[in-house]
Every structure is written in C-alpha cells, then in structure tokens.
Amino acid sequence: MVKLVAALVGTVALLAFAAATASAYRPGGCEVCLKAVETIQASCSAKELTDMNAIEAKTREFCASATGKDNRWCYFVGGTEDAATGLLREVSRPISLGLPKEKVCERLEKRDPQICDLKYDKPIDLNAIDVNTLRVRELKKVVNDLNLDCKGCAEKADFVKRINDYKKTLKPEL
To answer: What is the pLDDT of residue 44?
Structure first.
C-alpha cells in the first residue's frame, strides 16, 4: 500500500512538473510580444512605468499605429478597437511592478498561448530569390512588403516585371 501511494505521489509530481514547464517562457519565442512590451516600456517615463492606467494608455497609443504582427499582438491583448478580449491589465500590471519583458510575455502566454506564437516575417533579400520561381501569392506579398505600386497587375508576368524593374533601380551593393 505504501509503495502504491509513493508511486502515485511521484506520478502526480511528474505531471505537475511537465505542466509547469510546458507553459513556461520559451527562449527564442514570443518575439513579437517581447518587442511590443519593450517598445511600450521605452515610451513610458519613469513615473508612468508605475501607473497602470498610463501604461494602458501607452499600449493603446502603440496599438493605434501598429501594423502587421504588432497589430495582431495588439488584437490578442485587447489594444485595438475591434479586439474581442481585454488583457491590457495583464500587460500593465506586470510592467508597473517592474517585471522584465520576458516575465510579462510569459504571463500573457499563460492567458493566451497564441500571443507567443507570433513571429515576424523574415526580410526579403531580392538578390537571393528568383522571382520567376515564386507563386503569384508570394509575388503579391513581395510587392506589398516593398510598398511597390502594382496597379493593373493581374498575371504573374506583371508582378515579375514590376519586381525586376524595382531591382534595376536599386544601387548595386559593394
């Protein structure tokens, strides 16, 4: 009977440890969250860093101009107008307590794991890619990422021509 109780206690302890490490902060993860929290902290004065309402106001200010993955992070924490959730207190409280950005993101991940699944897209290296081999969806993304005007582009050849024209205007790197 004693061995059975000891085995049961050991199993429960092992499961508790596994659950604790599964939701812990992952090094290299939470890339967008870390950058957003760092930007918010940097925009606050020393006095504002202790005031949760001021931090929430700075978060909304950050989210008002956020685009791409930063905007998606804002949506998840409730910093955008169309957000369905409201985790701004989960952002402002740890910051006001002086916790590092890693701990802030770790706490946010416990509330919503998809917050730490966000990653920035890798920058486009036009010299390394062959635009002729890309699909139309990828070509559209390249055009949008480079903010190129491609009105009237309907076929793959149009997108390839526009990107190649842009590549010709770039100065050759030494």
So the answer is: 94
Short-list 108, 122, 44, CA closest to 78? 108
Confirm if 78 and 88 have CB atoms less than 8 A apart. yes
Full set of structural domains in the chain with CATH: 31-117 (1.10.225.10), 131-169 (no CATH)
Q: What is the pTM of this model?
A: 0.65
pLDDT above 80 for 20: no
Sign of the CA dihedral with 17 first, then 32, 28, and 50 last: negative
Q: Which residue has the tokens 């005031």?
A: 51
Give dist(CA 169, CA 109) in Å, integer: 44
Please tell me the total number of residues recorded for the chain in this structure.
Answer: 174
Cβ-contact 10, 50 below 8 angstroms: no
